[in-house]
């Protein structure tokens, strides 16, 4: 099991707990969508899984080689080309110079940017930049990939395209993915499992399995989206009181 979270809690300083008694098991190769309202602690939980933050209580098991991380903002180095951004990640991983170029090209092709390797970030669209960012995360070659609202800033059509791409890449690479979003449609589109995090404190309050039937039957997927949206609204209302 790559990720086990047991009674995980987090508070910053002497503030109110941000996370409280979070429990979850994520299996190897699984695609889990972590859904929650703004500010409920999704990024904090992802940072804890990534080892960037320590939990205040509870226990967690994560892969010993850590995780690759992809953020909402591509955060590419502007003075490097797309290829060089990816090569840098490979270099940091200790891949030799000769091998780096071929591997970077392979990753560019995987994200359908085979011809754009020499472009710098400002010459790329937002969607293309996120593809480079995805390729760079894959260059880190970790089994576990943590994604923090990576497509939130993109327009709906580009986002749909990237959903298809990410699904294909997930299937091709067998990565374990934890994908944070506040968008229910996106969670149902991508996740095999959707975990709903409550607000203040954040806790997994419900989870849903997204089955093959949901993938092939838009009506069924729409129904599930409706059910999850209603539950999310309830959480937001409860928190607003
Ligand atoms: N380093 C920190 N110090 C103090 N408080 C923090 C810190 N990091 C996060 N918080 C608080 O923890 C809470 C949860 O933040 P977090 O960013 O994890 O939520 P989120 O669900 O990812 O939100 P969003 O969807 O808006 O990105 C917020 O109230 C935030 O102010």
What topology emerges from the helices and strands here?
Elements: E1 3-10, E2 19-26, E3 31-36, H1 42-50, E4 57-61, E5 68-70, H2 82-92, H3 97-110, H4 126-139, E6 144-148, H5 156-173, E7 176-181, H6 184-190, E8 193-197, E9 204-209, H7 212-216, H8 218-240
Parallel strand pairs: 3-7, 3-8, 5-6, 6-7
Antiparallel strand pairs: 1-2, 1-4, 8-9
Helix pairs in contact: 2-3, 2-4, 3-4, 6-8
Bound molecules: adenosine-5'-triphosphate.
Organism: Arthrobacter nitrophenolicus
Keywords: ATP-binding, Nucleotide-binding, Transport
Domain ABC transporter: 3-224
Give an overview in words.
There is one protein chain. With 241 residues, the protein is α/β, with parallel strands linked by helices. The chain folds into 2 domains: 3-67 and 143-240, Rossmann fold; 76-141, no CATH class. It has helices spanning 42-50, 82-92, 97-110, 126-139, 156-173, 184-190, 212-216, 218-240; strands at residues 3-10, 19-26, 31-36, 57-61, 68-70, 144-148, 176-181, 193-197, 204-209. A 6-stranded mixed beta sheet has the order 5-6-7-3-8-9, sandwiched between helices. Strand 1 (3-10) and strand 2 form a beta hairpin. It is globular and about 55 Å long. The chain starts with a strand and ends with a helix. The relative contact order is 0.19. The structure holds adenosine-5'-triphosphate. Adenosine-5'-triphosphate binds next to helix 1.
